[in-house]
Amino acid sequence: MDGRGRVYRRCSCRDETGRQLGQGCPRLATDGKHGTWYFAVDMPTELGKRRTMRRGGFTTKSAATRALADVANRTAQGVRVDDRETVAAFLERWLQVKAGESKATTLRSYRAHVEKVIVPAIGHLPIERLRAEHVEQLLVDAAAGRGPQTVRRIHATLRSALTYGVRTRRLPYNVASNVTPPNGTRPEVQPWSAGELATFLRHVETDRLGPLSEVVAACGLRRGEALGLRWCDLDLTNRTARIRQTVVDVGGRLQFDTPKTRSSEATVSLTERAVHALAQVRLGQEIDRASWRDGYEDHDLVFARDNGAPLRPEYVTRRFVALSKAAGLRQVRLHDLRHGAASLMLGAGVPMAIVLKMLRHSSIGITVDTYGHLSEETARTASDAIGALLDAAFDQAAKTSADPVGDHTATTGTHGVSMAGVEKPAEGTKGKVGRGGPRGDRTHNPRIKSPLLCQLS
């Protein structure tokens, strides 16, 4: 800034010709409360043009001085200063940048958060005057009628936008980083049990959705991943499927897209049941292809409409709900078939790290947060196993602590220690006293441990 900033006082009084007096008003010299304070500062040149920032309306000189110092500090840090840009304008510019980086579904979620929640609440504020308390109030208001997960996503959207502002030197720091979103509990996943899943799969064996449900339940695929699965991604001989594309609905138009994250692009194993179901699908598609002839849309999709076109995700969800109701089962989501795959693996003793690889989560934390609990059936099995181990330990401890067979007459040494069951000294060793038995053979001290704990330690 080179010290070119200055603070001054002026008013809006006018002379007889209507010209504003500004700093020349005589009342400014006699009335300390007349007028308001301003600052003016030369900004770094842009495209060779000199630019001066003037701001006013401050009630005191110290307030104007602080504002000038804030501008000076931002400029010294290389941060672009534009106190007329609002939060709404900044977020719109951020969305334009994200349009070239994000998936269509992600961008749609960002735009919904910005346009429906963030801008109506704080869009009018200058981006440089946005503070943590504004973000806190935004989240409090957003929580009315919304779940904690949704509010956390709204917070994540704003935090991501402000991080972009810091990275591009538009903002000095991210005011949303230290704001904690609501800590609502994550809904506990309660997928179908193995018996319920078997009932459903038997019910849909003859339905077009049957093989898709079989593959989703066996591999833990997401809906879009299953709908985007191609025959060229399958190796039925080795029972594997490569996840390479998804089907997404963007504004009513179906698109092929890459999987959700880089870790989602992986190869998963298929069960024998899934391989058999896929073989049936191939036979059915050959009939469809012959029926439609030149009208068949060949996208190489495993699960498609009878003319080869992609299935609409919302249709698959509605059909799943209708079939599960017809099967007389409790209502779960189609995505819960993916959760069910994880639950069955954990119930079978599969390590959490293997479940992570099967579901292609980006981190073990996601897997633990989602499936850290066990279903009631699995928990009961684990509890029974623990109980059986403890029962065996108690039985062993009882046998070990029982009195030995033989003479139960207690003999006591000079220090009052029981000598029952101790072998008599051999001939020629009379009067010789050993310094103790073998290690681990000492009498248990009840003040230190119980006999049972000694056995378990």
CATH homology superfamily name of the domain at 196-327: Intergrase catalytic core
- How many strands appear in the DSSP assignment? 9
Q: Radius of gyration in whole Å, from Cα? A: 37 Å
State the separation between the terminal residues, measured CA to CA: 72 Å
* Helix run count: 16
Structural class: alpha+beta
Per the principal axes of the C-alpha atoms, what is the gross shape? elongated
Average pLDDT reading:
80
Q: CATH topology of the domain at 196-327, which one?
A: hpI Integrase, Chain A
Question: Helicity level, as a percent range?
Answer: 40-55%
- Strand order of the biggest β-sheet: 2-1-3-4
Strand content: 5-15%
CATH architecture of the domain at 196-327: Orthogonal Bundle
Low-confidence stretches: 363-368, 408-425, 428-438, 445-457
Query: How many strands, which pairing sense, and closed or not: the largest β-sheet?
Result: 4 strands, antiparallel
CATH class of the domain at 196-327: Mainly Alpha
